[in-house]
Every structure is written in C-alpha cells, then in structure tokens.
Amino acid sequence: MTETPAPGAADAAADDEDIFEQKAVRLAKRERLIAERESAAGGAYPVAVRVTHAIPALREKYSGLEAGAETGETAAVAGRVVFSRNTGKLCFATLQAGDGSRIQAMVSLANVGDESLQRWKELVDLGDHVAVSGEVVSSRRGELSIMVAEWEIAAKAILPLPNMYTELNEESRVRSRYLDLIVREQARHTVRARATVNQSLRTTFAAHDFTEVETPMLQVQPGGATARPFVTHSNAFDTELYLRIAPELYLKRAVVGGIDRVFEINRNFRNEGADSTHSPEFAMLEAYQAYSDYHGIADLTQELVQNAAIAVAGSTTVTWADGTEFDLGGDWDRVSMYPSLSAAAGVEITPATGMDELLALAEASGVDVPPHATHGKLVEELWEHFVKGGLERPTFVMDFPVDTSPLVREHRSVPGVVEKWDLYVRGFELATGYSELVDPVIQRERFVEQAALAARGDDEAMRIDEEFLRALEHGMPPTGGMGMGIDRLLMAITGLGIRETILFPLVK
Q1: Is 15 a known ligand-binding residue?
Q2: Closest of 431, 390, 424 to residue 294, by C-alpha
Q3: Which annotated residues bind Mg(2+) 2 (predicted)?
Q4: Cα dist. 20→14, 159, 460 in Å?
Q5: Which pTM was predicted?
Q6: What is the pLDDT of residues 339-372, one digit of tens each?
Q7: In angstroms, rounded to a whole number, what is the distance separating the alpha carbons of residues 484 and 94?
Q8: 422 is in an annotated binding site
C-alpha cells in the first residue's frame, strides 16, 4: 500500500533539498575566500572590518538628498545583504543594519574594475555581511547609496535567509528568533521597546529615590509567592537548592536593614504551566517603600506603567500590534473584590460566607473547584468567572481573602480581608500590591497555616522561613510593596502574547 504524504510534506522536502544545495554552494565559496586570504583582506570571516559611519546615521544626515545627487563624502559601512541584483556592469545590493535601517550599495565596473566586480557576482549571497566604502550618493531613483570603491565580505552566510516577503509563523519566530529579528520589523521594535520600558522604570524609581539591588536566584528554600519551584543540587554545598519564585523575602530583609525604598528587576522561575500569559521563566519587577501602604504603592505603579507607555509610544494611548488603540491614561478605577463579586453574581458574598454556599454557587455557575480549596481560593475563582472578563480599563481589584495572602497585612477596617490589590489590564493580571505584613508573630502564624496546607498536599503552599522571621523580629517599618511582570507590561503596551515579548522564550 502506498502512503499518501502529509499535506505540505513534499514542499518541505523540496525546501530541505534546496537548502542543502545552497549550503554546499556557499561552503565552496567559503573555501575560495579562505584560499584567497593571501591576496584578499580577511577571507570568509575577517577579525574586523573598517566602518566609519552607521547606516542609521547616514540615513538621518542625508534624508533630504535629491535623486541623482552626489555628496562628495566617503563613508565605510557594513550590513547584511537582504536584496541583490546583478545587471552586467552594475550590481545593486541592499545592506541592512541591526535596527532594520538600510542603504544601497552600487558596485560598478567603472569604480571597482572587472576583477572586483566578478568576485562580487561570484561570492556575495543574500544573508552575507558585507563591508563597503565609497562616496555617499543618491541613485537616479532617489535611493540613498554607497558608490562602492572597495568591498569585502565581513561574514559569509552558509545558510540562506528565509523569504523576506513571507512572514514567519509564530513557532518559527520563537524557535529561531535571530531570523525573526532579521526579517521582521515588529520583532526588532519589541526588543527596543523592552529596553525602553526597563530604562523608563529605572528613571521613575530614581525620581522617587529608590535603590536598585540584586538578590539571590539560588535559594535554600523558595518563598515570596505561592508557586511550585524548580529544584537543583549544589555540588559545592552538597545540598538541594531552588530557583527563586520571587525576590520578596530578601527585598524585605533589605527594608529591615534600612534601604527604605528598594527595587529589583530580574528573573523568576516557576515550575508551572505555560500559556499566552505565563512562562516558566519570566522577568519580574518588585519594589518596596517603607512608611507607605497599598494605596501609595498603587499610585506609584500607575505612574510606572504610564511613564513606560509614554517612553515607548509617546503617549499613554498605546497602539497594539493588531492596530487597536488602548488608553492607559488617567486615574485607574479601584474596586473591592467581595462587593464586585456580589454585584456580578447576584448574591451577597462576604468573608463570612460558608464553604457550602460557595461550593453550591461554583457548581451552579460551572466553575471548577481548585484542589485543596479554601474559602479564599473559591472566592477568587468565582471572582474571575463573574467579574474579570468585564474589566476593560486598567483596574485595581482591592481587598483579597486573608487565607490566600499569607504575606499581607489584614485590612485596617474590614475583617476577613487583607490590604492587597491586583492590577488588571486587558483582562490579565499585570501587577499585585500589598500593605506588607510586618508583625513577626502573625507572620509565623500565617507560615504555620501554609505548612499545614503543604502537609495536605498543596505543592504551592509556602514554607516556614526562619531566617526571614528572624529579620522581621528586628523590626520592619510599615511598608507598601508591589510586583509586576516585565513581560506582561510589554504585553499591555504592545498587545503581543508573552512569547513574543520574551527575546528567547523557553520552547520544547
């Protein structure tokens, strides 16, 4: 029986064969370049090439140059060949810089001679890095160009580039981000936007006299969040270690030590699921401000996000990748969890509502009951079902159940809840903030309650951290704290999924 090839299998096989043939041809060119090293500068991979001008700077300087004009200025530039056309006595190539800006190279018989022109035709391929020098001119069609006098290959590409006019699919983009950066402007923009966001965050913190620190990523026990950690082993110490799930407990030690305004931007690792808003490895911002509370830290968070949006987009109204505009400006709404859930569900739910009533509501509403369900976990699941989807504008959801927030201070006037908020933007959680629990006696009680959950099989429950409790016993001032995912902040500003905002996401 003859098997029918899967759809696209024949095309894929043909593509692989073509790539194999191209690679063989390019490897032969590499060998030729190496053999010519005595007479030709550098060979296939010279150590360095002469560059006097950056392509973006030349484009800015000569943005108004008229078609056919000559500048009299000689420039040496380098870039990747992304377009090539050979027409007898004149060859054209488009060189692309790392930021995507381009300039044309014109290699003519009159300027370089027959031997050099022939070498260009025989050796230069799409994808090669090429260094050229010559006069800056504008072609007859008005394209900013280098009229080449000298050239050399700066790096020979052995594999061909993908089609520059056909967009890579998402899987190809995340698996081969280097190709994505070469062919797609949005990928380059996202990298620059991320750098701009981080710079903006640091600028805003500096304006408020915060100090940036670094805390351990390898920890003897995980803490600071309810999440499953990655486990590793230290040969030097012959002990089990954990990749951190949050920097919180170390940053609070810094506050105890007198660094009253402290923040960190760094990596967290959680051994959990991956989807459009979650990644096992992600960048996190955490900040703590002594003598403040969850209201003060909410004000700061709004300022941080809005300043980042302005830095990237020039306005608090951002344009997402799909063209949708989203307004991050103004003062954001603040709603309480229990009242907003009661209004949406049509039944009053309070911290005193019993588990039977919550379970009945969950069953009637088709809400899955989480493992090791507690009052707080059920309330949060119900809130997500009834309320979360209706939040359009950025919104601080305030005052969470006490049993899901073991590191948070109890509400100053509402029994059974804690002074915690989650910030929702575009329907996903962007940040969380607390009035921090600073009483070491109550904190120990909360840890003991978490340990009981762990004993019942809850893998995400916190453990008792004696070193952290010892720090608290030396006195921690009233403090407002917050945590925000950098990847998710990029999602809010760009409208992209989390794998697109991470330069090299983890993939199978």
Answers
A1: no
A2: 431
A3: 429
A4: 10, 9, 49
A5: 0.88
A6: 999 999 999 999 999 999 999 999 999 999 877 7
A7: 42
A8: yes
